[in-house]
Every structure is written in C-alpha cells, then in structure tokens.
Amino acid sequence: MTAAMAVLLVTATSGCGGGDDESGQSQTGWPDKIVFAAVPAGEASTFQDHYGLFIKALSEEVGVKVETFQAADYAGVIEALIAGTVDMAQLGAFSYALAVQNGAKIEPTGLLQHRKGDQPGYVVLGVTKASGTLSSLDDFRGRTVCFPDPASTSTLLPLFEFSKANLAPDKDFKRLVVPAGNTIPRAVKRGDCEIGLVADAQLENAIRTGDVAEGELKSIWQVRAPHSPVVTRSALPDDLRTKIRAATLKINSEYLEGRGWCKGDACLVSSNRDYGYLPVEHSYYQVIWDACKATRIEACGPIGS
C-alpha cells in the first residue's frame, strides 16, 4: 500500500440499507457500505466541497452508507481499486485505462458532463499569455510547457497529437510537470512556463475564482479528449451496480438544487465543477489505448506494449 492510500476519510453518509451483521453484508447480500475515491484538486478540504453532495445523494438513492477515500494522486486510487478497498472512484480517462490494464475489475458507470446539453468529452487547451506573440503549435518549439499529472488524459492526448506533428517533449520543448492541473493557468500567468496544457473547464474555473483574469490568457492550440468516468467495482452485486448506475445518471446540479441542499454553482459536481453524468461504455475510451501504443510514454506502462 502506498502513502497515497494512507488516509481514509470516513465522512460516512448514512444510507437506508439493511442492518449490519458479522459478515459486513446486509440481508440483501449487499455490502453495508461502499467506499468512493477521488483525487482532490488543490487543498484537501475541497474534496468535500466537490463530492460531498454527490456522495450524500448517492447514499440516499442507493440505500447504502458511503465512505470516502482521498488519495494524493490517481496512482493511489488505482491501487485501491485493484486491491478492492475502494468500490467506486472518479477517474480520468487515462487513469481508467491504466486501472483496467493493471488488473482492476471495474466498469464505467457514468461520464462527466460539464454543462447540460454538452456532447461527451472536453477540450485540452494550450494556453499562453494573451499579451505574447505565440500563436500556434509551431510556437511550442523551444518553449517551457506546463503539463498536468503524467497519468492524466490532458497529458496523454496532447502527446499523441504532438507525435503526429513530429514534436518531441524534452527535445523540441522543455516539459514542466504541474500535478495539480487546475493551477496551470496561474503558473502560466506567473511565467513558470510559457505555455500550459489545461482542460477548458479548468481555465473557466481559474477565471471564476480569480486565479487569472478574463482575457489574460489565450488558447493557441487545442485537442478534444474523452471525459472522465466514475467507475464501479465489477465484483459488487449486479443489482447494486444497476442501482448505482441509475443513481449516478440521476444526480446532477439541478437534482441537488431541487433537494434544497445548495444553490447555483455550489451544486456543481466534481473538481471541474460539472453538471452531472452521461451514460458511457468501455469502448468510448479506445482512444487511450491507441494513444499509448503510438506514444509509448512511460506512464502508459503495459498499455503501450
């Protein structure tokens, strides 16, 4: 077990499932609790802000107590899924593929949807200071580029596209890893890097929170990427997984506001402040396997072999 798995935050949300017994299962054959994991964006206290209401609603809809596991990075979540100490997790597309390839018995339960009505997926932007002269992918050459977590989709998909353009990291440009991707707009603003790779929602949030001003950064390149799944362990009973899926697709910001638990942006789900979830199948993430086989980056591990 890694240090990332060392802290289990037992913010248990009471459900209405069956009573406890010595086996740790209810009379229905369901576990008495399920454990939900995610990686916080920024301070640890934001975990509850980003996932607390979703977890509360999930517990009520499914009828099972939900505890939370907060990992330092995706590697910690993946290890917990493989070990079976976590039952549900919010992953990125890349970390989902890594988890599956490394033996996690999981299935995608829902796909994050940033705004109501959005098509599946999100956009990775290459952003730079609006006052500068950089304007295209060619301008990445010779620059310092901020990348998020090496095991993130927002790193893998750009590298896939760069390989098609014969643009090699650490050769044609300097790579600076900033694991907390939501801080990359601020890093570009400070001048830590001349270009930063950031999800469109992360840039929106940076503007909303005042990290950068509207119009202070501009996008000079972009690529569309598959959005993040919430996953469920396949070993859970079939009827429980069915109920978890139905609840996940039901819970969104309108649902949470309708319950009277929050208002406006406070009802948004996940660290990217999303509307809710869409249905998703495993095949949606095939592009991750394709990108790993093309780039063969270290983070892909067995996917790229």
Automatic annotation (TrEMBL):
It holds the Pfam family Phosphonate-bd. Belongs to the phosphate/phosphite/phosphonate binding protein family. InterPro entries: PhnD. This is Phosphate-import protein PhnD. Signal peptide: none annotated. Keywords: Signal. SUPFAM superfamilies: Periplasmic binding protein-like II. Gene3D superfamilies: Periplasmic binding protein-like II (3.40.190.10).
